[in-house]
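Hi Y.,

Following your request, here is the sequence exactly as I used it, all 187 residues.
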Amino acid sequence: MSDITKKALSASLKQLLLEKPLDKISVLDIVNGCGVKRQTFYYHFQDIADLVEWTCLDDASIALSGKDTYKTWQEGFYEVFNLIKKDKAFVLNIYHSVSRDKVEMYLYSIVHKVIKQVVDEISFSYSVKDEDKEFIINFFKYSLCGIVFDWIDKGMVKDPRVIVEQTSSMCSGLVTRAIENLGLRKV
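Below is the corresponding structure, written out as tokens. Let me know if you'd prefer a different format.
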């Protein structure tokens, strides 16, 4: 029941963001939009920012489900673009209402998990220091997120499929090569 209530609050917030900016939305607006009491909101979330964060992470976890391996990361990256485009009003409103740092934090967190899975999968056959793995993860995380932020800044016009194909072509074999360069193959 808890997730159903959270999803209802999230849907209400998204609907309200089609009508007005985040800083003009109150908890009362959100609860009225989904027919729950104000106390129910505060049972699940500390404030609206907490609901925004939960919404971003929940949407991302659904979009990326099963798409976080070496063979499927491109699908996951494409789903990030689809998610942003599908919820364009929500994303742009959050992007312009909350500090950019907060939005970056959400995306970095999401992409970090995917890249970590890929790096862990590939580095299984190598002896790589944890700090080297983290460097590789961060390198690709900041690269991929930078591409997404550039796309958002330019109005989300370019076809996400083209961006993912270009990114995939550029990254093909780079994670493996980075691991090979920083680690020793296990015998």
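The chain has a mean pLDDT of 88.

Thanks again,
Q.
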